[in-house]
Amino acid sequence: MAYAGFWLRFVAIIIDVIVLGFAGWIIFLPFAASMRYGMRGIFMGGRPQRPEDFFPIVGMMFRLAAIRTVLNWLYFSLLESSGWQATLGKKALGLEVTDLAGRRISFGRATGRFFAKYISAIILMIGFLMAGFTEKKQALHDILAGTLVIRKL
Known about the structure:
By secondary structure, this protein is mainly α. It has helices at residues 6-34, 39-43, 55-80, 88-92, 107-122, 126-129, 140-145; strands spanning 2-3, 95-99, 147-151.
C-alpha cells in the first residue's frame, strides 16, 4: 500500500479549496447583494452610520459561516465516504481515504475525520504537518479517526 505524503495531500486540498471557494461565492453573492449595507448599498453610496447598522452585517456573516461549515462538512464527508473515497482534489491525484484495513470509511468516520481537522489546525497546523513525518503518512486527524490516505497506483 502506497501512502499519500504531505505534498500530494497539500495539492489535493488546494484543488478542494478552489472548488469550495467557487461554491462559496455562489452562495455569498445573493446575501451580499441583498443587504442594505452590502454590495448594493455600497454601490449606492450607503455606509453604516450607527453601531446598530452593523448588526445585519454581523448576522449575515454568522449565517454565511454556518452555511460554509455545513457545505465543507458535507463535501468532505459525503465524498470521502462514497464509492469514490475521495474529494475532487484527491480524486484528481489518485488518492483515496480508507480505514486502517484499506476499506471504505463510513459517513460517521468521515464526519469525525472532518471535525478532527479543526484540532489539526488549532495547534498551529502541526496536525497537518504530521503527514510528512509519520510512518503511514497520517496527519493528526487521520490518527484520531483511524484513517489512511493512500495512492492508487
